[in-house]
Amino acid sequence: MKGASFFPSRTVAIYMARLFLVRTFGILAALVLVLQALDLLSESGKILSVAGNGDTEVWRYVGLRAPQIVARFLPFSVLLGTILTLIQMNQNSEVVALKASGLSAHQVLAPLLIASFGVAAISFAFNERIVARASATLDQWQKVDYGRMPIDRGDRSNVWVRDGDDLIQVDQIRGRGDAAQLGGVTVYDRTGGNLIAIIRSGQGSRDGDGWRLTDARRFDVARGTVTPLGAITVARGVRPDQFTLASVSAEGLDFRSLAAAIDDLQASGRPTKALEGALWHKLSGPLSAVLMPLLGAVAAFGLARSGQLFVRAVIGMALGFAYFVADNFALAMGNLGAYPPFLAAWAPFLLFFLIGEAVLIRTEE
Questions:
Q1: Closest to 207 (Cα-Cα) out of 238, 169, 228, 243
Q2: Looking at the chain, which terminus has fewer C-beta neighbours within 10 angstroms, N or C?
Q3: What Å distances lie between residue 118 and 67, 121, 122, 274, CA to CA?
Q4: Closest CA to 248 of 328, 171, 148, 139
Q5: How far is CA 270 from the centre of its chain?
Q6: Are 173 and 183 in contact (CB under 8 A)?
Q7: 3-class SS at 187?
Q8: 194 in helix, strand or coil?
Q9: Which pLDDT value is given to residue 2?
Q10: SS3 158
Q11: How far apart are CA 245 and CA 238, in angstroms?
Q12: pTM of the entire structure?
């Protein structure tokens, strides 16, 4: 059929896709193994220094950290997998045979591009279902220095809110809106910048326009005495979103949850540009896997006997790494407000797509 003529034969397409995927995930496994070992060298001492922590906590850290490493280095693996696949095919004159059969450069790359779309889809699903949850859990665990803490994924931890002169610190917040539950509440009662008293409570809930604390205790700084208060209401006028939206981590939220958090922040009049850029990057980041075969394609064309195969591979790697530098730079500019969120997330992708196409067309000529 005319539509299917864009691709090589089914056998060749499966052969190329298999080479590409095996090398990509093989490189990824090696990178994760090495980088996880190096990361564990620096963190294992901190984990084991906490009383009661042992091998279980070390393996727990590995289980939470490994998904972050996989998500970060999957595009690198796709780039290196592309280059290794194309170098082998070039050395074996397989690319020459495909070109001699009348296929264009884009047709030669078509199986790799289709396979990279599959990698991008897997990457997005992996980030949404595993990486976001692991990042949120690890972030909460690290905030208590790997100590004992009941971690509920998706909750906020160690949140500070100001109420006039007073400061309110909450260990953990569950739920949203009027249903929000506060755990480990500490109210620093201040007057004119001077600390007068400290009120502590194990839990708090919404009560009218304030927050009801149960089994509260008040420590008087001047007298040095502790007074049981029972159930009291504090922080009148402090809204639930001041607790739940005080610390929004884009890495710890999936796409839908982050979009909802951005809507809540916008409704409360808070800036959201950096989070909007991170939201768009949850799409452009995994999709960068599709860009890697295009940037690494320079290694496929040109005769291996010309002695320039190594140079072509270096050019392909340079283009790929230049994309990652530009991507991080654009995100940083977006966080500073210099770039609009959409531009910060998508400009590097579009720019290097055009560069890859230009290099590919020039190489083919």
A1: 238
A2: N
A3: 18, 5, 6, 29
A4: 139
A5: 22
A6: yes
A7: strand
A8: strand
A9: 42
A10: strand
A11: 12
A12: 0.76
